[in-house]
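re: ur msg from earlier - yeah i can do the pyridoxal-5'-phosphate complex, just paste it... oh wait u already did. ok heres what im feeding in:
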Amino acid sequence: MNHFEYTDGELYAEEVALSRIAREVGTPFYCYSTATLKRHYTVFADALKAAGLDATICFACKANPNIAVIRTLANLGAGADVVSEGELRQALAAGVPAYRIVFSGVGKTRHELEFAVAKGIFQINVESEPELRLLSEVASARGVRMPISIRVNPDVDAGTHAKITTGKKENKFGIEWTRAREVYALANSLPGIEVVGVACHIGSQLTELDPFRDAFLRVRDLVAMLRADGIAISRLDMGGGLGVPYDSEIPPSPAAYAEVMASTLGDLGCRIVVEPGRLLVGNAGILVSRVVYVKEGATRTFLIVDAAMNDLMRPALYDAYHAIVPVHQARPGEGLVEVDVVGPVCESGDTFAKQRKLPPMRSGDLLAFGTAGAYGAAMSSTYNTRPLVPEVLVKDDAYAVVRARPSYEDMLALESLPDWL
Ligand SMILES: *Cc1c(COP(=O)(O)O)cnc(C)c1O
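and the outut:
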C-alpha cells in the first residue's frame, strides 16, 4: 500500500503531480511520501502491540538516512539503528533522542565508539571480542559502563540474496552462536561494559517466516543459558529484515512476524528492540527519471533514461527487480512495447530492466521506478561524475526538496591540484 497513484492518467505522490516536481526540481529525483511512511510505521507498530510485545522500533537508517525521513518516523515514536558515526549524526540531527539510538556494525572505529559513548546512546551492538575490549577501554576512560548487546550469528539461512544474507556462520557478522557463552563471560568481566541483551539480524528482504523463527528460538535458548550463568538479559534486539513486495512476491505480514516473535520470545520478560529498514521506507519512495533517447537496436529497443546505476544501484548490484511505470498513462488504444530500460553510464551493468513491457515512450517522457525508498538514494554515488540525485518529500499537497542536487562547483570544490602540477 502506498500513496503513488494515477489521477486523470497522471501519476501523483499524494496530491502532488510528479510532472510538476520534475519541472521545478529537474530529473532524476527521488520522491518520498509522508503518508506512506506513516502508514508503514503504524501498521508495524500496531502489529507488535497487538501481539503483546513491549517493543522499541529503531528505524535502520542505512535504508534511507535522509534526516527528513528519519524525523518523520521519529515523530511517530521511532528510534534509530545506525551503523556509522555519520548516521549517528544524522539521527541526532533529525531529532532522535540518544536514548533511542542503537549502534550496529562490524567495524566501528575507536573514534566512532568514543562519539557514541559521549552521546550516551541506548546501546551498542558489539560484534567481536576486539571491539568489546576497545569499547570497554573507551567507556572506562570516560568513567562509564556502556550498555551493550552482543550480536550473535545464529547460523540460519535467511533464504535471501547472497549479498544481503548475514546470519550464516561464514558471514562476517556477529559472534558465532556456539561461542556466544564464552564471549558473554568476557563481556561480563570487563569494567567499561554493562551487558544488557542479545542482538541478532539474519539478513534483508526475507520473504519467509521460518528463518526468523529458527533464529528467535536460538536466541531463546541462549538467553536461558546466559541467565543460568548469572548474566542478566533484559533486552532482545532482533534486527530488521522483513521483506517488501517489489514484484509479485508476498512477504509475511507484520502481524504474522509479530506473532512469531511473541510466541518465541514474548515470555522472557525482555524489552524487544526491532530494526526495520526496508519495510518502513521501501514502498514509500520512487525514483523519477526522464527518457533521453529511444534507441532502436538490432534486436531490441532501448529506453535510455537520465537516471543510472549510480543513482539506483540495486539492479546492477543484486539483479533486483523494480517496477517501472510511465508518469503519464498510455493513451487509450495504445499497446505495450517491449523495451530495455538503461542508463547512460559506460557499463553494460547500467541496465534497469530487460524486455519490460511499457507503453510507447518518446524522448522527454517521464517514468518512475517503484519501491525505491530503501537502499536507493542511500547507496547512490557520483560515478561518471554525475551529481547525487535530489530527494523530495511530499506531504498532502506540499513538497520540499530535502536533499538538494549539488552543483558541479560543489562537486569540484573538494578536489585540488598538488603544487607540482
Ligand atoms: C541492514 C540492517 C537492518 C535493516 O534491514 P532491513 O532489511 O532494511 O530491514 C537492521 N539491522 C542491522 C544490524 C542491519 O545491518
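cool cool. The chain has a mean pLDDT of 96. ping me if u need the other ligands too
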